[in-house]
Specification:
51% of the residues lie in helices and 8% in strands. It has six helices and six strands, in the order E-E-E-E-E-E-H-H-H-H-H-H. 23% of the residues are buried.
């Protein structure tokens, strides 16, 4: 097992403290090491670091939870992201993050996170990487990812009336080719987002009325309606963490 304690034993427990007690962030109480089976490199994750674990909004927890088998890989990725940010050079950080995001995907699979879920989590952090460090090319990449997903949704829905609409799926596939090494990522973002988008909309249609009722109850009873969104949004006292 590639995740080990600082003294080399198999990592059989992840020690976390929820801070504050009613907050959404956790402090790692005991460090660990990840041994990448691809490169053979060892990645230490220090005790004391703060994290929200997998950064998944609460309204998506029905699909991918913020904690679970992905907790240790998420802490590892947070630590590696800090390393890339500290480089102070956008291009160097982009190269570093591309390597570290692959390590994140490998670690997810080592933790037996289901294949589709692992690749989706990798795709989302990779898209954020390109947006953050890719400059103008990263902006174009993100726009194309969104447009490609829209094409997938339109083609899939229209195919119910006429299967010929499926030919439209060739457009995002061909448009991904110029991205070369990023082409698989682009195709995954297009297809996965396009397929999941209707499911997410249905989920929100069911969730939104409940959150609205919660907010009304809080408002009537003198509470804070914004609290029904936690931990998706940080409470005011936590914004400077």
């Amino acid at each position: 097992m590639p995740f080990r304690t600082d003294d080399g034993r198999e990592l059989d427990e992840l020690l976390l403290a929820q801070r504050p007690a009613d907050g959404h962030r956790f402090e790692l109480r005991a460090g660990f090491v990840y041994e990448d089976p691809v490169s053979g490199r060892r990645y230490p994750v220090r005790a004391g670091r703060s994290s929200d674990l997998a950064s998944v909004p609460t309204w998506l927890w029905s699909f991918i939870a913020s904690y679970g088998r992905q907790s240790a890989p998420a802490l590892l990725h947070d630590d590696r992201s800090d390393v890339a940010d500290a480089l102070g050079d956008r291009r160097a950080a982009l190269v570093q993050r591309r390597q570290d995001d692959r390590v994140f995907r490998t670690a997810l699979r080592e933790q037996r996170v289901p294949l589709l879920r692992a690749w989706l989590m990798w795709a989302w952090v990779s898209a954020d990487r390109e947006r953050t460090f890719g400059g103008a090319a990263g902006a174009v990449f993100m726009v194309q990812a969104v447009l490609g997903a829209i094409v997938v949704v339109v083609a899939s829905v229209a195919a119910f009336w006429n299967p010929a609409w499926l030919a439209l799926l060739l457009a995002p596939a061909l448009a991904a080719v110029p991205w070369w090494r990023l082409a698989p990522l682009m195709l995954l973002l297009n297809s996965a987002t396009g397929v999941l988008a209707p499911l997410i909309v249905l989920h929100l249609v069911a969730l939104a009325p409940f959150r609205l009722i919660e907010a009304i109850v809080e408002l009537v009873t003198g509470g804070d309606p914004r609290g029904v969104l936690r931990p998706t949004l940080r409470p005011p006292s936590d914004r400077n963490d």
